[in-house]
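Retro notes (design track)

What went well: tokenization of the new backbones is finally stable.
What didn't: we kept losing track of which sequence belonged to which structure.
Fix going forward: every design gets posted as structure first, then sequence, in one message. First example under the new rule, 109 residues:
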């Protein structure tokens, strides 16, 4: 296959995928029946970056807890997990945070 043919085929595929990419969000009932997601290259990175830019930082209560326990956790980092399931570092960071939050049993962390 000639290089020109590959470029032409790639352009056709790009055009077709672009139309599918626009069609599926506009038709969610059909999108649920489709076995594939069509995402642009870098789309996940852009979404992650956008979320990071919107992050305002931890709330006052979290900052207070971090400040109150800083020395204790600095001396013994595992004390943060005392009485809780050890963190699952195979999870995405946000999932780890949610998992830990759901496991908290005491007020003094």
């Amino acid at each position: 296959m000639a290089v020109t043919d590959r470029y032409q085929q790639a352009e056709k595929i790009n055009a077709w995928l672009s139309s599918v990419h626009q069609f599926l969000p506009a038709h969610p009932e059909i999108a649920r029946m489709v076995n594939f997601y069509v995402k642009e290259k870098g789309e996940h990175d852009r979404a992650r970056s956008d979320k990071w830019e919107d992050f305002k930082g931890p709330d006052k209560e979290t900052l207070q807890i971090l400040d109150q326990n800083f020395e204790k956790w600095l001396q013994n980092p595992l004390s943060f997990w005392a009485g809780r399931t050890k963190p699952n570092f195979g999870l995405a960071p946000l999932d780890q945070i949610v998992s830990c939050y759901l496991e908290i049993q005491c007020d003094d962390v």
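Added context from the reviewer: Confidence is low (pLDDT under 50) at residues 105-109.
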